[in-house]
Input
Amino acid sequence: QKEVEQNSGPLSVPEGAIASLNCTYSDRGSQSFFWYRQYSGKSPELIMFIYSNGDKEDGRFTAQLNKASQYVSLLIRDSQPSDSATYLCAVDNFNKFYFGSGTKLNVKP
Amino acid sequence: NAGVMQNPRHLVRRRGQEARLRCSPMKGHSHVYWYRQLPEEGLKFMVYLQKENIIDESGMPKERFSAEFPKEGPSILRIQQVVRGDSAAYFCASSETMNTEAFFGQGTRLTVV
Output
């Protein structure tokens, strides 16, 4: 079983819609959860992190964490074509970052 | 405060040669991680190091790959006797302490011909 699982996509949404990206993890002891965005040919960049159950909002981005269900999600409101990228979920377990394989998001103008 | 610096950005090696990839973490960061990304695939953990110590190398292939993070200087990922399957992007990330976010370098793209 992979430590972090994501649907590879691609997920296609029209411009202005809400994009919902999901991630599940296997280790209940995981404490820290991160979302990275990676444009094609570029390195991953951190966009959000969350440690506590519930929602965390930052601009158009909302991260949601449910430790009981071992589930993390990222919502992108008012999606823009510039949001088209691969979104990587990462879980910190005893300071080893496990990454999911990423979900490719395509926002169509 | 410069970010995580990796060099070279692009590296071409012939089969059987050695590849050395360098990573200088952000200032004040003592934790370094190496990841490999094959084309069209996600990031795969390779190794986690702190200064002078390998903490977890469970993602490293058993042969030909090694990593170090000396007291002075950058972290080095070394691949001996490269094969075509080693062609990938190798990313380094660093973090300040345990359980804090990691920041990535721009990666080294290794091509084995």
Remarks:
- The interface with chain A takes residues 31, 33, 35, 41-45, 48, 55-56, 91, 93, 95, 98-107 of chain B (CB under 8 Å).
